[in-house]
Every structure is written in structure tokens, then in C-alpha cells.
Amino acid sequence: MIKAVPRLRSSAAITSALILAAIPITAQEPSLPELFSDTIDVRIVNVEVVVTDKKGNRIRGLEPDDFELLVDRQPVPIAYFTEVDEGYARTAGGDGVADVPALTHDEPVGTNYLIFVDDLSAVRGRRDRVLSRLDQDLHLLNPADRAAIVAFDGEGVSRLTDWTNSQYQLRSALLAARMRPAFGRRGVEATRRAVMAATATMQSVARGPGRNVMLLLADSWSAPSAVWDVLRSGLSRPSVESLYSPLVHAANRVGYSLYPVDVAGLQHGPRSYWQPLPRVPGGYYTYVTGDSRGSTIYPPPWPSMQMVMAGSYEQRQHDVFRFLADETGGRPMLNAFRSKALSETVADTRSYYWLGFDAPQSRDDELHDIRVRLVGHKKLRARSREHYLDMSKDTEIGMRLEASMLFGTTPGADTLDVRLGTPTKAGFRRISVPVEVVIPLDELTLLPMDGQWVNELEFRISAVDKWDILSRKLVRKVPVVRPEAPAPGETFVYETDLRLRKREYRYVAAVYDPLTDRMLVSARGVVSPRGDRP
After folding, report:
1. What is the pLDDT of residues 449-489, one digit of tens each?
2. Which of 31, 63, 195, 293 reaches 20 to 30 Å from 152, CA-CA?
3. Neighbouring residues of 166: CB distance < 8 A, sequence distance ≥ 6
4. Angle at 82 between CA 77 and CA 88, to 5 degrees
5. How many other C-beta atoms are found inside a 10 Å radius of the C-beta of residue 179?
6. Cα–Cα dist 437/69, whole Å
7. pTM here?
8. CB 309 within 8 A of CB 265
9. From CA 453, how far away is CA 196, in angstroms rounded?
10. Of 6, 2, 10, 17, nearest to 438 (Cα)?
11. What strands, in cross-sheet order, belong to the sheet with 306-310?
12. What is the rounded CA–CA span in Å between residue 91 and residue 23?
């Protein structure tokens, strides 16, 4: 648990309390690098729809009247429509909305391929074979297409290349990816860490014009068995939905289709494993083993053990990849398809119908269903994303801070000066850490109200232990009141105490300005019972 005792002081020693009323203001967009920026706040939800017959053949030439778009089972008007056929717009898209440009007939429409390499789960030989095949298929990219490559090692995300169409830069990045170590980590915690990294990557990548696709190169992402639903009482094992929903929600919110790549490929023969489980009701210990015989629960024949048969690990991992793809309108690249993941993804994303609708934003973190129906075409099938999340501002800011934890700082954001003092004992296996935050006032916005210059900032800190088991978050309001406009270079100092378990944590902190939607982020650091270090 984190507890904070806030203390405020400024260079002018003004410390009166403040509660700000809601004041509308137009946010100024900061100047950011091309690849990384915040792209969450959109009103238009884009839906890419692939229409096929029963044999899987693409259907072309449909019009807006052939589609019915339902959100939470209610019809909504289609605000944007165009057909993209083999990478070219075949119908005019009208006015551009959100990140979808206004398109003219026969104008090339590019696809942005974000390639995420999970080195934490990867076995090097298998990963490198997939990367080599991606290299061989780079020539399939159209001139309007772009790709960016990032890799995750369990601690942070590395940008191997920004958005580019240069085959030389992409090949260099893929070569660098093959030179990176692979750790072959498995299990729920390793998977949760990789899912968080992929989610934060999408939140931090500035999407360009065109369709957005994420290729997820994952070797052994955890695949919880259905037997856990039966033994749910007293267990903390997550379901597929709970473990992977953050990634799905982020993809649907910012407009990415997921194409998971089965790096492990075909596993020959049944694959068994044993995993100890916590004690279940009745006092017995439970073990789980996986093979290809399905799921069965056996009564305990011995007083100390209960045997549970789970489905094959490979089959359940494929179910994970199908879940990610189906929920976001993509396709899973399973078994032999891993060797042609890029070519199949390029072929699948070249022809589709691009629909957009105006989504009312209540920012309540509610999930909304999306359904696309074909009017008068009962024999045709439509594939698209299945929902979107109406993300709250608090959730959005939290995701941006998680991205900072992985990328070091939010790219393009100013670095915040955060100083941690010497920890002191604060109870049994607890420490109290003094924190001092130096806030540059000329980097933020103060409004004149009643003869004073005021704002109510937010101080946020996110800390996680090296096993990603104990995660701590803190949000505190920081009232700022000045008798006059701050002078250039003037700072405001916020002090607080953090109470943590007596162990080592990685942390990142931020100050958020709600008036301009700007966030100043600290560099990553480590705090331990011996003190903090960079």
C-alpha cells in the first residue's frame, strides 16, 4: 500500500488551498516526434470491415446502404465510408475525420505495420526464423505503406526503427532484432508484462494516415485453461479475457487490428506439463497437467493431491491468438503461417471497407459492442472489430504513465525533476520514502481567477517490483496559487512521503496539467531500502 503525506512549498511561499471549477479551454498540441505521441482522444471510431463469401473470396463494390452499423444493438449513422481495394481508394471518402484522411478515387491508401517483438518469451532460434521471413517479405510493402519495429526485453521497450518505408532501415532493424538476447520466459507474470508493454506501445505510437496493424511476435504467451473457471474459488489465475483484455481494449480504442504471430509454430505430439496450484476448498492441493485429451476434473484419490487434466498447451495458446485477432478484426498467424506472417497480413489488409461513426464520449470506462450487418446479403460475411472502450481520462493518463515506465520517459514530454530521499523504517517490512518534486511553472498553465493565478495539477507515481507482482500507484491533487503570473524559470516544489513494502521498486512519476492535457514525466528510477538510484 502507498500512503502519502503531501507538503507544498513554492519559491514565493504561497500555499493556500484551491478547488478549480471546470473551465473550458482549447488544448495546444505539443510538437512531438513523428513516431511517438498521445493519440487516444478521438471521437470518431473507425471500423475496418472485410466482406467475404462463404468460400473466403473478397466481395467488392458494396455501397454505404449495404451496411448497417450497430453500437450496443442500436443503429448509428455512418459518418465516413470508403472502399479500399488492393491498396487504392475506389470510392471517395468525403471529408476526413479523426485520423482518416479525405480520399479521392484511385488514391493510394497506405497501411502502418507496427511490429512488436516479445524477446521475454522468445526462444532465439524460433524468433530469428520468423524475423528472417519478415525480412524476405519486405518487398511486398507498397510505396504508401510504412513499418515501425519495437522489441521488449522484460524491462523496457526499445525502438529499433521509427515509421519508415525504407527497406534498408527496416532490414537493419530486423538484423538488430536478431542480435538481441531471447529469454524464453513463460508463465502468467511474464505474459502480463509483455501484454502491458504491447498495450503501452500502441498508446504511445503516433498513427499515420491509413490503416493501422500490429504484428505481435509472441512465442509462449500464457494460455489459462478452462479448468480454472471451475476452480475459481480461492484462486487468482486469470482467464484469457482478464489477462488480454487491456491489449484488446487499447487496440480497439486507438484503431489497431491485431495479427498475433505464433512464433513457436507446430508442436509435434501432445505436450504435457505440471503446475502446482494453491489449496482449493476441501483442503487438498491441486496440480494441473496438460495433454490433448480435453479437460476433466477427477475427485482426489489421495488426501494430498487432486489431478486435473487440461487441454493441450498449444491448442489453448492458439485460442489466445484467435481471441486477440477476432476481437480486433485481425487474423492469427498460426503454425506454418508464421513463416509468411507479413505476406499474409499484407494480403489481408489491402482490401476492406472503411467505416467511421461518431461515438458519444461519456468517458466512463464502459465497453460498447460494435456489430456490422450486411443489408440484403445474407450469404456474405463481415469481419471487423467487435467493441470499443469509452476510456476515462484517469485511465488514459494512467496508460500514458505506464508507457513512460517502459519507454523511459514519454517521448516528446519534458523531464520532471523528482528527488527521492533516504528511506526510513515505517512498520513491519515497510519503508517511508521522502519525495520532492520540482515543478517548472513556466512549462504549465496558470489561469487568472479572483486576482490570483491558479491551477490544480495532478502528481502521479507508478512503482512496480522487479517481478511485476507488487504494483503501486498514487494520484494526488496539487493546488497551485500565485499572486501574479510566474516569472520565467520559477518553480513550485511539492513534497510527499511514499510508504512501500521493504523491497526494490522501479518507478516513474509525472505531473499532469488538466488545462492543456500536458504531462511532465520523470526519468525512470529504482527505489530500494538502501535508497534510490537511476
Report:
1. 888 899 999 998 888 776 655 667 788 888 988 898 888 88
2. 31
3. none
4. 170
5. 8
6. 48
7. 0.72
8. no
9. 39
10. 10
11. 274-277, 286-290, 306-310, 296-297
12. 42
